Amino acid sequence: MEERLEIRLSGSGGQGLILAGIILAEAAILDGKNAVQSQSYGPEARGGASRAEVVISDEEIDYPKVTKPQVLLALTNEALNKFKDNLASDGIIIIDSSINKPDTPYKVIQLPIIETARDRIGKSMVANIVAVGVITALTKVVSREAVEKAVLNRVPKGTEELNKKALYAGFELGEQLS
Amino acid sequence: MEERLEIRLSGSGGQGLILAGIILAEAAILDGKNAVQSQSYGPEARGGASRAEVVISDEEIDYPKVTKPQVLLALTNEALNKFKDNLASDGIIIIDSSINKPDTPYKVIQLPIIETARDRIGKSMVANIVAVGVITALTKVVSREAVEKAVLNRVPKGTEELNKKALYAGFELGEQLS
């Protein structure tokens, strides 16, 4: 892993991307790293593409803003179009299967994240946790043990098993490609 | 209000301060402003004082980190001791009544935030929303209408009425002093 890794999670409001970002950040500290999780809102954010960002580093993080992410997750077309440019040169874009493949110089990985949440786990609202599993398996930015702990710490009481299943389904999706 | 306002919410993990920060940030955008909400984690964060931060501005926010907050909320002694220095010169510190009053050049406002949540609302876990109400009434950084909408958007389904009561109790606590 590089010393500083920037991740941008994008989609629509209500897809739980802030929670996904918090979970990745907390997993990173369980792994002994530093992390900042943030979301920026402007007046244009109402109704538009939403995003949550995570910076993970072995060092203290002085500049917490994501400028050139190594990893972009996009769960909607609108989010992809808004954020698909200006990744790091080795950046990867992870998109849901429901999204049109973009014309881009970056590596694009398309996976049935929302479908897996809806049809295999039975709740489309856990697509965020499936995505966390995908990112973990693909990028190894956090360990599976740490991310599982962070998921169980952070999801609402009573939904732990459901979310654990979603996480494992995400691991499986991601590891086919890693 | 100044052009840029920095708020630091501190306490222990599990007190819901990230959610409080997200609510303040979302209220700010409902008011037509820009906002960034973030939390930083280092290895020392495990078990220690936790914090969530919000920057609100009329302008676009280039530097999202809180360096000299105008408002510090502290819900535990440990958090107060960690964060009580380096506020803005006109900064205020809002502390829970359970905390020892610090020796500090800044204005200190002590209010029964946790007691109000526990004894008046009946759930100590809504202390975070009482605190959001206090900060809103005291600082007017966001409008009451916007913060109420943001609370109702963000709290778990089925807890809306409870959290609305907590918010209004916070307004009352804060307005006695504003």
Automatic annotation (TrEMBL), chains A, B:
EC number of this enzyme: 1.2.7.3
UniProt entry keywords in alphabetical sequence: Oxidoreductase
Domain Pyruvate/ketoisovalerate oxidoreductase catalytic intervals: 13-172
Gene Ontology MF term list: 2-oxoglutarate synthase activity
Source species, domain of life: Bacteria
UniProt-recorded name of the protein: 2-oxoglutarate ferredoxin oxidoreductase, gamma subunit
Phylogenetic lineage: Bacteria, Bacillati, Bacillota, Clostridia, Thermosediminibacterales
